[in-house]
């Protein structure tokens, strides 16, 4: 009887050890999956930022033909706003001065640069007036277009695919990146929902 009790005790202890081992493995797997997800997100953000390292932060302030000034923008010209977007390093949280406000349709586009660089995915933003032969035609996800904007090296003349679109007010802004460096002048474009009052 005593031997049977000892045998049952050993079996129970072995079963508990095995169960604990499985639980630890499952927990480690879950933590591993979580870490992989976080690493993938970080890599995606780094890739997005590196895609935009060649963007011309500053411009002459010229706007495309046919672009209409906003009649009653939320953020008035000369006012200050805080940017909440990460198109490029140093934009998130930066203080911007509004230098232009326009009503238009904006597009996120993926395109292959004309200079042979790697494909730029989901670039924000290209406006209606920066798409070749757009006129008043509204584009939808999947439409192929030719980009006339020159925000980044290899962008002008590139063939692109529309990823998303929305009608909104876009702003041209001056700002100093939170990462340091010189003030960027006449940056194009920031949408209304990417700005907040100080």
TrEMBL record:
Q: Which residues form the signal peptide?
A: none
Identify the residues that the record assigns to the DUF1541 domain, covering every copy: 78-128, 141-192
Name of the protein in question: DUF1541 domain-containing protein
Pfam family name, one: DUF1541
Q: According to the UniProt record, where is the region Disordered?
A: 31-67
InterPro entries found in the cross-reference section: DUF1541
Which stretches are tagged as biased composition: Basic and acidic residues? 32-41
Renumbered to this chain, the Polar residues biased-composition regions fall at 42-62
Species per Swiss-Prot/TrEMBL record: Rummeliibacillus stabekisii
């Amino acid at each position: 009887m005593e031997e049977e009790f000892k045998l049952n005790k050993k079996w129970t202890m072995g079963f508990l050890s095995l169960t604990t081992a499985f639980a630890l493995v499952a927990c480690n797997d879950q933590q591993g999956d979580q870490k992989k997800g976080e690493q993938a997100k970080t890599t995606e953000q780094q890739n997005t930022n590196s895609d935009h390292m060649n963007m011309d932060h500053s411009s002459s302030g010229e706007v495309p033909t046919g672009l209409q000034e906003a009649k009653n923008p939320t953020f008035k010209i000369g006012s200050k706003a805080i940017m909440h977007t990460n198109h490029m390093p140093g934009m998130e949280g930066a203080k911007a001065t509004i230098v232009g406000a326009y009503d238009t349709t904006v597009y996120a586009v993926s395109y292959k640069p004309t200079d042979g660089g790697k494909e730029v995915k989901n670039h924000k933003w290209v406006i209606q007036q920066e798409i070749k032969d757009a006129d008043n035609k509204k584009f939808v996800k999947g439409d192929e277009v030719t980009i006339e904007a020159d925000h980044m090296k290899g962008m002008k003349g590139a063939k692109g695919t529309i990823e998303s679109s929305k009608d909104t007010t876009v702003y041209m802004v001056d700002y100093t990146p939170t990462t340091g460096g010189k003030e960027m002048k006449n940056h194009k474009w920031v949408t209304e929902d990417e700005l907040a009052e100080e």
